[in-house]
Specification:
There is one protein chain. This protein has 390 residues and is an alpha+beta fold. 24% of the residues lie in helices and 25% in strands. It is built from ten helices and 16 strands. It has an eight-stranded antiparallel sheet with strand order 1-9-6-11-5-4-2-3, with helices on one face. A three-stranded antiparallel sheet has the order 8-7-10, with no helix packed on it. A three-stranded antiparallel sheet has the order 13-14-15.
């Protein structure tokens, strides 16, 4: 059972959401994530935005002479206090990868456990004073917009495509035409709005507000092809020159028949058991990679301190700023963390890491028979987070 209830309307099952709404149409979930209420205040996010290690953006919306038009200015991190001096009335600051800074916030991903963990991107926060916005836009990914503080009005319009025209000469992708407005509601703290990919949306702060975006990602084909090439370098037989049929032809011509023969051999490899293994490895590495660099912890617990904390009631949980996942196939269970397969694990460690990847919290009783140095390594590598008893 999840410690955090699933973020869905009371009368809706995960199966219904995935079949009727996921990547198809929006859904408003009133009080879908009440755990966010009171977790953060605007000052918390403003202070964080000025941290040297944070990925943040300051977006300033200044009125122009043209009616109903806006001119956008973008400043990327590092941000300083001076950047927030003498701002106009309408501005927004965006901070990425909040799981890195608040494991407690990262645990709220469990509310969306009906989406596979490997499709999670990161949690971004948008802080804006009254009237602040990031303009009319769309995203290429699924997003759950969770209100954590204050109120934000959301309007949803048409689905966009490659022909959607953006306003020229702006530092962000914004457009003017959202088509017919199909949704117009104000979200209160704790409310969640699911927005599928490419659906135009426009959010305006009604007062000082924090909106947390739980974004979901999937790899693109270029990422898979690039990873596949890396995996292939470990197969020495693929470096042997091909044997190709030869016919009499002009010496300077590359004929279509030769290209076809090369393509056929490539397809044969991809469709073989070797190719299946390579593709599985490539996909697993891509979807388990971190998007952001890991932070180096300022201080770490000794092994004795770690085990004592666990004996006193602390738990080990997956750190959602990292990527921990597993894969079952004919050769057994493979564990991946942050883009790499973890080799040399015993069956007991594999079973525990599978449970962690699925969102379980491990107690001292679960890990007491595991080498404490192994557990300390999990913590040091960022795969797990120690939730200590207060």
């Amino acid at each position: 059972m999840n410690a955090i209830p699933l973020c869905l309307p009371n009368d809706m099952t995960p199966e219904q959401f995935l079949s009727e709404y996921w990547q198809q149409k929006p859904l408003l979930i009133r009080q879908g994530l009440p755990q966010l209420i009171g977790m953060f205040e605007p000052e918390d996010m403003l202070d964080l935005a000025m941290d040297d290690d944070v990925s943040a953006r300051l977006l300033i919306q200044a009125p122009t002479k043209q009616k109903n038009k806006a001119q956008w200015q973008l400043k990327k991190s590092p941000l300083t206090e001076a950047d927030f001096d003498n701002l106009p009335a309408q501005w927004t600051v965006l901070v990425q990868n909040l799981e890195q800074w608040s494991p407690e916030l990262g645990q709220l991903w469990q509310a969306f456990d009906y989406v596979p963990q490997w499709q999670r991107d990161d949690i971004m926060v948008s802080y804006a004073p009254k009237g602040g916005s990031v303009g009319k836009h769309y995203d290429d990914y699924d997003v759950f917009l969770a209100q954590g503080y204050g109120q934000r009005r959301w309007q949803l319009g048409k689905f966009c495509d490659a022909q959607t025209e953006f306003v020229k000469d702006e530092p962000i992708r914004v457009f003017d035409d959202m088509g017919e407005i199909i949704f117009d509601e104000v979200l209160e703290a704790g409310d969640v709005l699911y927005v599928p990919p490419k659906l135009s949306h426009f959010g305006v702060a009604q007062d000082d507000c924090l909106t947390f975006s739980f974004g979901c990602r999937r790899p693109n084909l270029m990422q898979i092809i690039d990873s596949l090439a890396d995996v292939a370098t470990n197969h020495s037989e693929l470096f042997v020159p091909m044997r190709l049929p030869q016919t009499l032809q002009p010496s300077g011509e590359l004929q279509a028949v030769s290209i076809h023969a090369i393509k056929e051999q490539l397809l044969q490899v991809m469709q073989s058991s070797q190719g299946e293994d390579m593709i599985r490895q490539a996909v697993s590495e891509v979807v388990s990679k971190r998007q952001y660099d890991a932070l180096v912890p300022e201080e770490t617990l000794t092994t004795d301190e770690l085990m004592q904390a666990l004996e006193e009631g602390a738990t080990l949980q997956a750190d959602y700023s990292n990527r921990l996942l597993y894969r079952h196939d004919d050769s057994g269970t493979s564990i991946y963390a942050n883009g790499q397969r973890l080799d040399g694990l015993d069956e007991q460690s594999i079973a525990l890491l599978v449970r962690l990847a699925d969102g379980a919290a491990l107690t001292y009783g679960d890990v007491k028979d595991i080498d404490p140095d192994d557990i300390a390594e999990w913590l040091e590598n960022g795969w797990v987070w120690l939730n200590e008893v207060e």
